[in-house]
Amino acid sequence: MTTVRLPLFPLNTVLFPGLVLPLNVFEERYRAMMRELLKTPEDEPRRFAVVAIRDGYEVAPSAPGLPDPTAVPDRGPAAGFGTDPLRAFHKVACVADAATVRERADGTFEVLATGTTRVRLLSVDASGPYLTAETEPLAEDPGDEAGALAEGVLRSFRQYQKRLAGARERSLTTGAELPDEPGVVSYLVAAAMMLDTPTKQRLLQAPDTASRLRDELKLLRAETAVIRHLPSLPAAELTRGPTSLN
Questions:
Q1: At 114, which helix (H) or strand (E)?
Q2: Contact 130, 7 (CB under 8 A)
Q3: How many Cβ atoms from other residues are within 10 Å of residue 12's Cβ?
Q4: Taxonomically, which superkingdom (predicted)?
Q5: Angle formed at CA 56 by CA 194 and CA 35, multiple of 5 degrees
Q6: Which helix (DSSP H) or strand (DSSP E) does residue 23 occupy?
Q7: Per-residue pLDDT averaged across 56-69, rounded?
Q8: Angle CA(173)–CA(174)–CA(175) in degrees, nearest 5?
Q9: Does the pLDDT value for residue 226 go beyond 60?
């Protein structure tokens, strides 16, 4: 088994391959990670793993906001994730390639990364200035009937978008056609749907593309049926912009 050790960036969200992740990096542990990534030559990928948090806090508590004024704030690379960080995270993560890492004058960073491939977390190391993880790459198996399923998912996804946007007749993907490659479709739809983190995580770690598409088809039909009977939806305007893999 081939394993790779990667810097680990826990978030309260799920990153999918092919999707863009903008980050505002201000905590010292993640700033240290970005300073290390900047040492990588520009013609090589600056890779780190993004993992969804199962139990814990994305940002460590700081002294001014602590409920107990006598408490000592939790610090260090594993702050907010308990004594065994591996248990605080979901087991399947997504590798991100930081195409842009820009340090601001105050030492914080503006980062633009893109999800690339899935990995399974085998262990987490908190001995350094930031978390690292030993990871095992996960192959993307297409499964059975992925092409036909992708077509069905795209049809259902367009209906879902229209319902969210108030059933407008115009296309909600103005200026960009939706892809037709099954793997890309499966990740794009998983990222674009308004789902909770556990459900998105379930889609990320699906055993193959066809299984993910089948799950999405059920979710799209169920969500569209619910939306049809709701008088209004909060923040529906967020669905009116074009969806992009860039």
A1: strand 109-125
A2: yes
A3: 11
A4: Bacteria
A5: 90
A6: strand 20-25
A7: 49
A8: 110
A9: yes
